Amino acid sequence: MNMLQDVVEAQTLALAIVDTLPEPFLVLDDTLRLLAGSRCFYEAFKEDPIQAHGRSLFDLSDGQWDIPGLRQLLDAVIPQHMAMEGFEFEGEFAGLGKRTFQLNALPIRDESMAARMVLLAIKDITERRVAEQEKQRLLEHTEELLEQQKTLLREMQHRIANSLQIIASILLLKAGSVSSEETKNELRAAHQRVMSVAAVQSHLHASEGIEQIEMGPYLTKLSAGLASSMVGPKQKIDIVVHSGEGALPSSHAVSVGLIVTELIMNAIKYAFPVAQTAARIRVTFEKAEADWKLTVSDNGIGREGTRAPQPSTGLGTVLIGALAKQLDAQIAEPPAKAGLTVEVTRATFVSRLPRAA
């Protein structure tokens, strides 16, 4: 008698626990008929506990649970002792409208290890799925906007590059038509400044980037362009670039490129008044975190002969000083055994490369 009473009490306690669960929860027998349900289930699906008791799950809610896929999975829970996890379906329920549910089923065995009941947990994931769909929609819309932005940027880069080429060509044509040698040189210098900016635009277009410019390839391309357009046939001058890995924001790269252009043009114009063998201009760029150092050196005559004894106050020098100030960099001319060396250093950078002779 006591054992029977204990069983009854255990069942009563179990049903009380089921009744208090905050989400729809069912206890089914081995034929998938309702033995008990949580209060949340009866309230959410407008079922009367007394009338629903003993009915097949697939008859409840006007047959909304009678789904071929669900029936097949639940039919396998009892005989195969298998749990069912994460089954999802959409249904139209009275008072709820169209909802998405996730079902999990677990067989319960008795002392003989035979499955006698099935616990079925029902979770409403409608809002989650709506949020996921909205997130996916926004993601696709963002990707579409980003692609449009990339297209516009490519078009803008193309237009800028074309405009710079036109300006550079006009300057070069004008330089060929004037008689004043001083004016001719100034126009050619202006042409090279425009071409240095055009080189950045070309590098941006080639790398499909708008934020950072890898300085090694950019300075190499820029120096090669200056060598081909400014070094005359009577004087061979090698322009060599040494650069470790390091990138700068595109706006900073433009400024560094203009500084390199001015320094190389000065070296070409003044360092080698008489043709000499092994004439060389060396461009070195190093970067460590936010700091960097640019060095342009030559093995020419230095500040002797046709070179001014003190730094020039011409347009090029003024431009270099203004650009260095924008970059928060300092300009120095360290002593050199031969030629002239100009260093442009940002912050506390310490060089790790040997200085060129």
Summarize the structure in words:
With 357 residues, this protein is of the alpha+beta class. The chain has 9 helices and 12 strands. Strand 9 and strand 10 (291-298) form a beta hairpin. The mean pLDDT is 80.
Secondary structure elements and pairings:
Blueprint: H1 2-19, E1 25-29, E2 34-37, H2 39-44, H3 49-52, H4 68-80, E3 84-93, E4 97-109, E5 115-124, H5 126-177, H6 181-207, E6 212-214, H7 215-230, E7 237-243, E8 247-249, H8 250-270, E9 279-288, E10 291-298, H9 315-326, E11 329-332, E12 341-346
Parallel strand pairs: 7-9
Antiparallel strand pairs: 1-2, 1-5, 3-4, 4-5, 6-8, 9-10, 10-12, 11-12
Short synopsis of the structure:
With 357 residues, the protein is α+β, with helices and mostly antiparallel strands.
Beta-strand level of the residues, as a percent range? 15-25%
Fraction in helix: 40-55%
CATH level-3 fold name of the largest domain: Heat Shock Protein 90
Largest sheet: 5 strands, antiparallel
| Cα distance spanning the termini | 107 Å
Oligomerization? single chain
Question: How many domains is the backbone divided into?
Answer: 3
Task: Supply Rg.
Answer: 40 Å
* Mean of residue pLDDT values: 80
Number of helices: 9
Strands across the major sheet, in which order? 2-1-5-4-3
Any low-confidence stretches, pLDDT <50, length ≥5?
A: none
Element-level helix/strand string: HEEHHHEEEHHEHEEHEEHEE
CATH class of the largest domain: Alpha Beta
Structural class: alpha+beta
- In CATH terms, what is the architecture of the largest domain? 2-Layer Sandwich
Q: What is the global morphology?
A: rod-shaped
Provide the CATH superfamily of the largest domain.
Histidine kinase-like ATPase, C-terminal domain
Tell how many strands the DSSP assignment holds.
12
